[in-house]
Each structure stands twice: as structure tokens, then as C-alpha cells.
Design goal:
Blueprint lengths: L15 H4 L5 E3 L5 H8 L20 E5 L6 E4 L5 H18 L13 H7 L2 H8 L6 E3 H11 L1 H4 L4 H8 L7 E6 L6 E8 H17 L1
Antiparallel strand pairs: 1-2, 2-3, 4-6, 5-6
Helix pairs in contact: 5-9, 6-8
InterPro entries: P-loop_NTPase
């Protein structure tokens, strides 16, 4: 089941060939007749189906069309910050009881500070990303780091590398690369080597200034 969400479902943001097949529609507060009819269908506003009537206090409330013969005002589940914390706490307790907590969640991996005290993370990454790799996937770096220092980086994945690079300002985006196993090209999360070197240069500058 495909779900499309946009504040203005015009032909540019959602092609009519797709929107025309969207039978079930839900419209939260909109600002005008045009936006109203883009979501709920032509002439909906003229026929009294007006999502413009909702106020900013009507959280999660909107017009639902396509579920019954006539559009109806419906409230979805609304979760604020405190409620979300309660949900997360309960989910953690259930996972802990089931024995499915792993990794950072149970604190069985060393923090970045601990790693930084024993090795130079940026230098290690630079060591496994040669000059010829202008762009590299984070998952590739994780595998290379595990080979370089199994006792430190064993079990690391692409997400761990992404988190580790964030404090140093190395921007992780979608980069093009080739899968070594299949030989096929793809876009995956990674970074440019130039950004890594820039982070190392900045770190060295700060150390020299200190």
C-alpha cells in the first residue's frame, strides 16, 4: 500500500496519473479552496467539504474521503512529546524483557570518547579510504575498519560510521558507488574523502592552537 503525503498535491509534486488512483484521501487543515480540492477532489469545497474550517488546535483532525459514501471528519492518533516518551519507555521495557536489546541500547559498545582515547578515529578512516576513493560508502568503511582494528571496530556497520563522523562535521549523504559483490552501481549513504581530510586538517589546527 503506497502512502503519499504533501501539503500541496499539485501536478508538479504528485503526478495526476498517481493522484488519480488515490481513492482514500485525508485532508488536515488547509488554507484555501484550491488546496482543499486538490486533496479531497474537484468541487469538494463547493459541496461543503471544507478542511479550511479546522483551527490550529484541531491536532490530527481532518476530512477522510473514500472510506464511506460521504467524506467524514476523523481524528487520527496524536502523540506529543511526553506521550512519545511513554511509548518509547514501554517499548524498551518489552524488548528488555524479551531479551532483544542489543548494541548502544544496552551499552555494550565503547563510546566514541573511549575510542578516541585509544585510537584516532579520523586517522583510521583516512587509512582505509585511499586517495583514489573520492567517495565511499559508510558500510564499506565499516568493513575496512573491522579489518584494520577488529578489537575496536568489530561489529561496526554503516550506521555506526555515520554516527561516529557526525561530531567531526563530516557530512554523510547519498553517494554513488559500485557494489564489490555484484559489480552494480548504486546510491548509498557515504561521504567524500575531501570532507574527511578537511575534518582532519581542522582537528590538527585546533590541536596546534591549544
Amino acid at each position: 500500500m503506497a502512502v503519499f503525503a504533501t501539503q500541496r498535491p499539485d501536478a508538479k509534486s504528485l503526478p495526476t496519473g498517481i493522484s488519480g488512483n488515490a481513492v482514500l484521501r485525508f485532508c488536515l487543515k488547509v488554507m484555501g479552496q484550491m488546496e482543499n480540492d486538490m486533496v479531497l477532489g474537484t468541487s469538494a469545497y463547493r459541496n461543503g467539504i471544507r478542511a479550511t474550517m479546522f483551527s490550529r488546535r484541531d491536532l490530527g483532525i481532518g476530512y477522510l474521503a473514500g472510506e464511506s459514501d460521504d467524506p467524514q471528519i476523523t481524528r487520527t492518533y496524536y502523540v506529543d512529546g511526553p506521550a512519545a516518551e511513554t511509548v518509547v519507555a514501554r517499548a524498551r521495557a518489552l524488548r528488555q524483557k524479551a531479551g532483544t536489546l542489543t548494541g548502544h541500547a544496552i551499552g555494550d559498545v565503547r563510546t566514541l570518547k573511549a575510542i578516541a582515547a585509544s585510537v584516532s578515529l579520523l586517522d583510521d578512516i583516512a587509512a582505509v579510504v585511499p586517495t583514489g576513493d573520492a567517495k565511499v560508502w559508510c558500510e564499506t568503511v565499516a568493513a575496512r575498519l573491522a579489518e584494520l582494528r577488529p578489537d575496536v571496530y568489530g561489529g561496526w556497520d554503516g550506521e555506526r560510521v555515520t554516527v561516529a563522523l557526525k561530531p567531526f562535521g563530516v557530512r554523510v549523504t547519498q553517494v554513488w558507488g559500485t557494489d564489490a559483490a555484484t559489480g552494480k552501481g548504486a546510491n548509498r549513504r557515504g561521504f567524500e574523502r575531501a570532507h574527511l581530510i578537511a575534518a582532519i586538517t581542522e582537528r590538527n589546527r585546533r590541536q596546534d592552537a591549544a
